[in-house]
């Protein structure tokens, strides 16, 4: 979070081109990283079973990870809710100080 001493990086399966268009449309200033192979989710043991239209499959959990500069996981926010996600992250980061 700029100004708070934290960097924000968003990771998804979307392509780099899709990320560029989305960032421009939403005026996003932080990096959007493409991970079509879910490498981060696998490394973080954050692959979960999902269901869409009755079809079950595995994919990355919608979660936020707070990492120390050395890669240590300081906190995990599971089950992201877009409506209150920013407020939850800000409160979590304040509590970690």
Task: Give the topology.
Layout: E1 10-12, H1 16-26, E2 32-34, H2 39-43, E3 47-52, E4 55-60, E5 64-67, E6 73-77, H3 85-96
Can you walk through the features of this model?
The chain has 97 residues and is α+β, with helices and mostly antiparallel strands. It is 29% helix and 28% strand. A two-stranded parallel ribbon has the order 1-2. Strand 5 and strand 6 form a beta hairpin. The longest helix has 12 residues. The mean pLDDT is 89.
- The whole-angstrom Rg is 14 Å
What's the total number of strands?
6
The major β-sheet equals: 2 strands, parallel
Oligomeric grouping of the chains: single chain
Strand order of the largest sheet: 1-2
Unreliable stretches: none
Helix content: 25-40%
Determine the N-to-C terminus distance. Answer: 14 Å
Gross morphology = globular
Q: Approximately how much beta-strand content do the residues carry?
A: 25-35%
Count of helical stretches: 3
The string of secondary-structure elements, in order, is EHEHEEEEH
Structural class: alpha+beta
Return the average pLDDT rounded to an integer.
89
């Amino acid at each position: 979070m700029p100004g708070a001493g934290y960097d924000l990086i968003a990771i998804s399966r979307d392509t780099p081109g899709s990320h560029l268009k989305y960032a421009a449309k939403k005026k996003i200033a932080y990096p959007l990283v493409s991970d079509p192979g879910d490498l981060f989710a696998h490394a973080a043991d954050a692959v979960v079973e999902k269901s869409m239209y009755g079809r079950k499959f595995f994919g990355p959990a919608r979660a936020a990870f707070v990492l120390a500069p050395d890669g240590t996981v300081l906190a995990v926010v599971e089950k992201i809710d877009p409506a209150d996600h920013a407020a939850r992250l800000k409160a979590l980061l304040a509590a970690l100080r």
